[in-house]
């Protein structure tokens, strides 16, 4: 496989449901393959790249252009398993705003206008991505994850937007503690998966 081909899980035009850009229109490109393996992952169908067709970058771009979108979120899986330079170049050549969602566990490739870093304890981010993150989004499954959130907060830049987000299946259990936590630690905001409330992808 060359960098001009990527295992494409799905691509669609929708509304960003999480984090700093919640509520904004965006085109999503989901790349297959993930070696992080979070037990609570809601996109496990994207883990095995062999299950997904290798699609040429220009075909992906065609879908973006036809949608009329001006911004694209590249997500996974873990998209940084691949060289994303050809995809990013094709988007930037057409004036498209580029967003990346990543665990940060692999080397960065591509040119990004915004990086959402979502660190995972079982496979922590590489040191060099922390200073590049525009947004830190930590998934909260239990109280220990709040400690993990703080361990990552001290490594990002002062300008980085800080979010904690409840793991969807444990929303009722963890949200009350998260609310109290943010009231005491006001540098953080709570992110909710609003697309699930809206019933959109």
Would you write up a description of this structure?
The structure is a single chain. The protein is α/β, with parallel strands linked by helices and 201 residues long. It has a single domain (5-198), classed as Aldolase class I (TIM Barrel, Alpha-Beta Barrel), CATH 3.20.20.70. The protein has five helices and nine strands. A nine-stranded mixed beta sheet has the order 3-1-2-4-5-6-7-8-9. It is globular and about 50 Å long. The two termini are 28 Å apart. The model has no long low-confidence stretch (mean pLDDT 96).
Quick synopsis:
This protein is an alpha/beta fold and 201 residues long. It has one domain (5-198): Aldolase class I (TIM Barrel, Alpha-Beta Barrel).
CATH topology: TIM Barrel
- Rg on CA atoms, Å: 16 Å
Helix content: 10-25%
User: If you average the pLDDT, what whole number results?
Assistant: 96
In the CATH hierarchy, what is the superfamily? Aldolase class I
Judging from the principal axes of the Cα atoms, what is the shape?
globular
Low-confidence stretches: none
Q: Mind summarizing the main beta sheet?
A: 9 strands, mixed
Strand order of the largest sheet: 3-1-2-4-5-6-7-8-9
- CATH architecture designation: Alpha-Beta Barrel
* Tally of individual helices: 5
* CATH class annotation: Alpha Beta
> What fraction of the residues are assigned to beta strands by DSSP?
15-25%
List the helices and strands in order. Answer: EEEHEHEEEHEHEH
* Computed structural class: alpha/beta
Number of domains: 1
* First-to-last CA distance: 28 Å
Q: How many beta-strand segments?
A: 9
């Amino acid at each position: 496989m060359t960098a001009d081909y990527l295992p494409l899980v799905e691509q669609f035009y929708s509304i960003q449901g999480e984090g700093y850009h919640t509520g904004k229109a965006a085109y999503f490109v989901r790349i297959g393959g993930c070696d992080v393996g979070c037990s609570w992952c809601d996109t496990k169908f994207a883990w095995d790249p062999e299950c997904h067709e290798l699609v040429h970058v220009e075909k992906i771009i065609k879908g973006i252009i036809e949608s009329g979108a001006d911004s694209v979120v590249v997500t996974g899986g873990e998209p940084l398993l691949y060289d994303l330079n050809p995809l990013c170049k094709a988007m930037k050549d057409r004036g498209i705003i580029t967003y990346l969602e990543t665990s940060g566990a692999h080397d960065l490739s591509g040119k990004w206008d915004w990086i959402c870093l979502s660190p995972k304890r079982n496979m922590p981010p590489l040191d060099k991505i922390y200073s590049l993150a525009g947004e830190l989004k930590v998934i909260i499954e239990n109280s220990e994850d709040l400690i993990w959130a703080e361990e990552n907060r001290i490594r990002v830049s002062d300008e980085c937007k800080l979010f904690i987000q409840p793991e969807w299946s444990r929303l009722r259990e963890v949200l009350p503690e998260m609310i109290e936590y943010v009231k005491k630690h006001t540098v953080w905001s709570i992110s909710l998966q609003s697309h699930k409330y809206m019933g959109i992808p």
